[in-house]
Design goal:
Blueprint (H helix, E strand, L loop, with lengths): L5 E2 L9 H7 L4 E6 L2 E13 L26 E6 L3 E7 L8 E11 L1 H7 L12 H8 L11 E2 L2 E5 L9 E4 L13 E4 L10
Antiparallel strand pairs: 1-8, 2-3, 2-8, 3-6, 3-10, 4-5, 5-6, 7-8, 9-10
The chain binds a DNA duplex through strand 4, strand 5 and helix 3.
Length: about 200
DNA sequence: ACATCGATCTACT
DNA sequence: GTAGATCGATGTA
């Protein structure tokens, strides 16, 4: 099976979480669903750190958040609001409970699967929210703990680079604590964001 | 055992 | 812009 680009190196994930949240912009999530390739570019992320009142790890380890304490480079999936899954990239060395939430992706390949998984929505809304993108990609609880290093589940560098001027930041969305920390990052002007800016 | 509330989404006004 | 859905994880007792 031919690779589309280079997989992110294991130490990509071991830097501080805010750095990784920015570095993930422009990287591509590649899933293989039987015969179909699903490919999408990360355009919006949020960092969740230790000692961060908005993070699931703020009060220490629990059954839900244990994946956040694993070595960086694996996937943390959780269920919320009785309906939605959210997908994170775990960061830092084992024992550090931090991760990056994927908030929006730009579709590149697999449009038919995305449309089938999210019937009736316009193409512009297929992947533009943390619960929407997991629905379109078919991410469920079973993906919790998967490493992004398998042929059917990868994070790739396809050379889509952005300068720091092209990256915007803002407070994180939908949280009730630590509302002022500017730990949401996005590609300025992308039509695929969950919000205009 | 129970009460609270959430890293959201959709539909409706 | 706002309301309601929906249910599992968590904290408290």
């Amino acid at each position: 099976m031919k690779s589309l680009g280079r997989n992110l190196a294991p130490n990509f994930y071991l830097r501080n979480t805010v750095t990784v949240a920015k570095a993930l912009l422009g990287k591509c999530l590649h899933l293989r669903h039987s015969d179909t390739s699903l490919l999408a570019e990360i355009v919006e992320t949020e960092a969740y750190c230790e000692n961060d009142p908005a993070s699931h790890t703020y009060r220490g380890p629990t059954p839900r958040n244990q994946m956040m304490y694993e070595e960086g480079g694996l996937c943390y999936v959780y269920f919320t609001y009785g309906s939605h899954f959210c997908m994170n990239v775990v960061t830092g060395k084992k024992g550090k409970g931090e991760a990056v939430l994927l908030r929006a992706l730009a579709p590149l390949e697999g449009w038919e699967v995305f449309r089938k998984n999210r019937p009736g929505v316009p193409d512009s809304s297929l992947l533009n929210g943390p619960g929407k993108l997991t629905q379109a990609l078919g991410i469920f609880r079973e993906h919790n703990g998967w490493r992004f290093d398998r042929p059917d589940f990868q994070l790739l560098d396809l050379g889509r680079d952005y300068s720091s001027r092209q990256i915007g930041s803002s407070p994180r969305i939908g949280i009730t604590k630590a509302k002022t920390r500017p730990w949401r990052f996005f590609i300025k002007g992308s039509p695929w964001l969950s919000r205009k800016s």
